[in-house]
Write a structure and sequence with these properties.
The complex is a heterodimer of chains A (472) and B (376).
Chain A lengths: L10 E6 L5 E4 L1 H9 L11 H13 L3 E9 L2 E12 L2 E12 L9 H9 L4 E5 L5 E4 L3 H5 L3 H4 L8 E3 L8 H8 L3 E8 L5 E10 L5 E10 L15 H5 L3 H27 L7 H30 L9 E4 H11 L1 H6 L3 E3 L8 E4 L1 H17 L6 E8 L3 E8 L30 H11 L3 E6 L5 E8 L1 H10 L1
Parallel strand pairs in A: 13-15
Antiparallel strand pairs in A: 1-2, 1-5, 3-4, 4-5, 6-7, 6-11, 8-9, 9-10, 10-11, 12-14, 15-16, 16-18, 17-18
Helix pairs in contact in A: 8-9, 9-13, 10-12, 12-13
Chain B lengths: L10 H31 L8 H32 L3 H9 L3 H8 L5 H19 L12 H6 L4 H23 L9 H24 L3 H5 L2 H18 L6 H12 L6 H10 L3 H12 L3 H9 L4 H9 L4 H14 L5 H12 L3 H8 L6 H15 L1
Classes of the chains: A alpha+beta (472), B mainly alpha (376).
């Protein structure tokens, strides 16, 4: 999948004749078409593109559609616009994002309404000129305004917008980048009460900004800023108490497991036939549930490693053996992604001092990441090396790599190697490094853009560990 | 409450009661089977989709609940004024008009269900319409109309913004005004609910004995009647979004050359009510009738109506595409296949074809009834 850029900026063009034959195409589009078995001079081989081009030609007007196209073993989320131009149809294809059935942080406008309304004091919508087209009636009693009188007025006639922490107005950024409005501080005109605005963007058929679908929450204490809906903030995580995490674990794990199991069986239609679209929803539900379960696991771990009394079961361990086990655990996922994992030789033995379960957890995380960021046909190399006072396990992939500027960031809480990639919650690497350091070792990265990533887990040898303890 | 030992049941009565119970159970089972068979043989395109079904129930519950609450509250006040405190209390506390009306079958009223189904479908489609902006940072159509110099247009546009905002908030919260249906349907609903309230009151008081149930019935009938009349008097058809949109369309009175852009922009602004009203105004057909043909996924009548308004192929294509994007029941492929032949229909032919739609609604209903009677 080389060459895909994320975001909406990359637009690939193509020209299609009246009979559906592909006349010309930009390289990325040409490659997609050829992987589907098509060539220049033959009908477009990607059925969704052919269908949109054909519809635009027959209707005689531009047709824009969001489509998901299976390309090898990944799904691409593309935005396709077909414009009839005389006898031919011009195609403009943007997006080029790999898609998984469920993404953690990409609310669509429809879903956003439900999400935004939870805990909101009032809801609002605007058009492209930020004029209010809807204000929920509960705004009246709560904020002392007449919601109906506000309709048609600019959003700024209701609230004064304040700049965010970085001095910029989040709303301008949201409009310009057509991204959800995360947390726009504002004050009500008249009373001056503090309010926090959040919104998702409504786009028009041309993907242009067509307005906001938003909510507002009154803030009694200006310091009491509600967490934005799009992603959790590190500040919130710092406040997790052990009781809270334990409660979260207990409260969520069982129901989530049941949701996942039931959704899976609905999807597999084991309990009987269901309409195909409902079966697909069930798959989405199961995936989302699995994501949440993984998040619960990570939050429990996060809370554990940050406790002062965090204890490890340190013993003599064979890092090569653990690396082989971790690679084995990820063999199925790697097989599905068509990625090869090369693991340490079966007779290799590299002895260190550490906690078996935690080292396995770190390596599963590292190899899992490597598989996720590898292209189809790529390879992940796992090697173990013994030194005089420390042993290392290196997990190297052939993915797109991590820029040096990001090397520190990716080990922070809630940061991800590539935020545009689906899956993951940004806690894995943070926890892995904390665990490595708690065992007297470290986790580092050595990578550059385009050169793949090398994660190095180092742990002390038995002798070094003993010496440390002696010196201490 | 009984005093002393229970009298022994009469064996003959007991047998009769068991037989009657068994007969009722058989009847219920038969009814259920009948309904299940009907359900199975429903054609897929006549079957309500899940969202529509749920929203229909939600809207019906909201409207009847609001009318019921109004009638109960006011009737209780009247009864309390007459010194009938027991009845006043009973009328306030007992509920269940929706259940009684559903069981009785009166809600299967064709006009009522036709209007509510159309309203629900309309709202779902309007919500799913893809937005199309007039230009970057340019206000949407309805908001631009609120700012035009023609005050009739500007006032009506402002009223439509408010009416649609109210309707949407009501749909989402379930607090739907009882009067948010056309006047004739509201009238029917109010009297049905009044009857259900009286029925419920009788049942509630029966527990207190036959005498109590009968005493003061005249007063409660009078109170319920007063409350119903009060609800009817408060009904204002003119505030409904449909009515406001008709006023706006009449105020705009789009010229033939303005019509295509106005219709396409109304859809792009996701104002289906305005689209319906503008089209109705252009072709001189009742907006309620136009709403029916706009919502019909088959589209045949709508395409003819668009041609009757002398719309060109491109405008019809845009309208067809937007509606197909918003309504999964529509088949865009067959629309694309038919588009050339739709566009080739002469305007006069199209007008002649849709002329029956221009007949008065009750005239049409009478003709339909007559045709049904002939068939029998």
């Amino acid at each position: 999948m080389t060459g895909y850029t994320t975001g909406d900026t990359a637009v690939a063009l193509a020209e299609v004749a009246g009979d559906g034959v592909l006349l010309s195409a930009d390289p990325i589009l040409l490659a997609l078409n050829s992987r589907a078995g098509g060539v220049i001079g033959a009908p477009i081989a990607v059925p969704q593109l052919a269908m949109i081009a054909r519809l635009a030609r027959r209707l005689g007007i531009a047709v824009s559609r969001s489509v998901v196209i299976a390309d090898d073993d990944v799904d691409l989320d593309l935005w396709v616009r077909a414009q009839p131009e005389g006898d031919t149809v011009g195609l403009a294809v943007s997006g080029w994002r790999e898609l998984q059935p469920w993404r953690p942080a990409a609310p669509n406008p429809g879903a956003g309404v439900d999400f935004l309304s939870s805990g909101a004091d009032w809801r609002w919508e605007t058009d492209a000129a930020l004029r209010l087209t809807f204000v929920s009636p509960d705004a009246g009693p709560r904020m002392g305004v007449d919601p109906l009188a506000l309709l048609g007025k600019p959003l700024t006639s209701l609230v004064m917008l304040d700049s965010g922490d970085d001095g910029a107005l989040p709303i301008l950024d949201a409009v310009a980048r057509r991204q959800p409005l995360d947390a726009q501080p504002a004050r009500l005109r008249g009373s001056g009460r503090a309010i926090m605005l959040s919104a998702v963007v409504r786009r028009d058929a041309e993907r242009a900004f067509a307005g906001f679908i938003g909510s507002g929450q009154l803030i009694d204490d200006p310091a009491d800023v509600p967490p934005p809906f799009a992603k959790p903030r590190p500040a919130g995580a710092d406040q997790l108490s052990p009781t809270f995490t334990a409660g979260l674990d207990r409260a969520l794990r069982t129901p989530l497991a049941r949701i996942v199991a039931n959704a899976d069986s609905i999807h597999a239609q084991t309990d009987g036939l269901v309409q195909p679209d409902y079966a697909d929803y069930a798959a989405d539900i199961a995936n989302a549930g699995r994501h949440l379960l993984a998040l619960v696991d990570d939050l429990v771990d996060l809370q554990a490693v940050e406790r002062p009394d965090f204890a490890l079961l340190l013993e003599t361990i064979d890092m090569a053996d653990i690396a082989r086990r971790a690679a084995g655990l990820l063999a199925v996922r790697a097989g599905n992604a068509n990625v090869t994992i090369t693991r340490p030789a079966a007779d290799a033995r590299v002895v260190a001092h550490g906690d078996f379960r935690r080292v396995l957890q770190i390596l599963v995380n590292l190899i899992g990441n490597a598989v996720r960021y590898s292209q189809s046909g790529g390879a992940v190399l796992v090697t173990a090396h013994a030194g005089s006072d420390q042993v290392t396990v290196v997990v190297a992939d052939t993915g797109k790599g991590v820029a040096p500027a990001d090397h520190a960031r990716i080990f922070e809480k809630f940061e991800r190697v590539d935020a545009s990639e689906p899956g993951g919650n940004g806690l894995g690497l943070y926890i892995a490094r904390r665990l490595a350091r708690a065992m007297g070792g470290d986790l580092t990265i050595d990578s550059a853009i385009g050169e793949g990533a090398r994660f190095v887990l180092s742990l002390p040898t038995q002798a070094a560990r003993g010496q440390d303890q002696y010196q201490a | 409450m009984s005093v002393g030992s229970e009298p022994l049941p009469d064996p003959a009565l007991s047998r009769a009661s068991a037989i009657a119970r068994a007969a009722r159970a058989r009847q219920r089972a038969d009814d259920r089977l009948e309904t299940t068979i009907t359900d199975f043989f429903l054609t897929a395109d006549a079957r309500l989709e899940e969202r529509t079904r749920l929203m229909l129930a939600h809207v019906l519950r909201g409207i009847i609940g609001a009318i019921e609450a109004d009638i109960r509250r006011h009737a209780a006040r009247v009864l309390a004024g007459l010194g009938e405190t027991t009845r006043a209390e009973a009328i306030l506390t007992q509920g269940g008009a929706l259940l009684r009306l559903t069981r009785s079958g009166v809600l299967r009223d064709r006009d009522l269900m036709k209007d509510l189904i159309a309203r629900v479908r309309h709202d779902l489609i309007a919500d799913a319409l893809p937005a199309a902006i007039a230009g970057p940072e340019e206000p949407s159509l309805l908001i631009r109309l609120t700012g035009v110099s023609d005050t009739t247009v500007a006032t009506a546009a402002g009223a439509l913004l408010a009416a649609e905002s109210r309707r949407r908030a009501a749909n989402e919260s379930g607090m739907i005004a009882g009067s948010d249906v056309p006047a004739d349907l509201h009238r029917r609903l109010v009297w049905w609910v009044a009857a259900a309230v009286r029925d419920g009151l009788d049942d509630a008081l029966k527990d207190a004995g036959e005498m109590v149930a009968m005493q003061g019935r005249g007063q409660s009938d009078q109170a319920i009647t007063e409350a119903a009349l009060r609800s009817l008097a408060a009904h204002d058809d003119a505030e409904r979004p449909e009515a406001v949109a008709i006023r706006l369309a009449a105020a705009i009175d789009a010229r033939r050359d303005e019509l295509p852009a106005l219709l396409v922009e109304a859809l792009g602004d996701r104002r289906l009510t305005l689209f319906v009203a503008v089209l109705a105004h252009a072709i001189g057909i009742d907006a309620e009738q136009v709403r029916v043909i706009v919502l019909d996924p088959d589209g045949e009548q709508l395409w003819l109506a668009l041609r009757a308004a002398d719309l060109d192929r491109e405008t019809i294509a845009r309208i067809g595409l937007a509606l197909a994007d918003a309504d999964p029941r529509r088949d865009i492929e067959s629309f694309a296949d038919a588009l050339d032949s739709i566009a080739s229909v002469a305007v006069d032919d199209a007008r002649a074809a849709i002329a029956p739609l221009a007949m008065h609604r009750e005239f049409r209903a009478a003709l339909r009834a007559l045709a049904g009677a002939d068939r029998r």
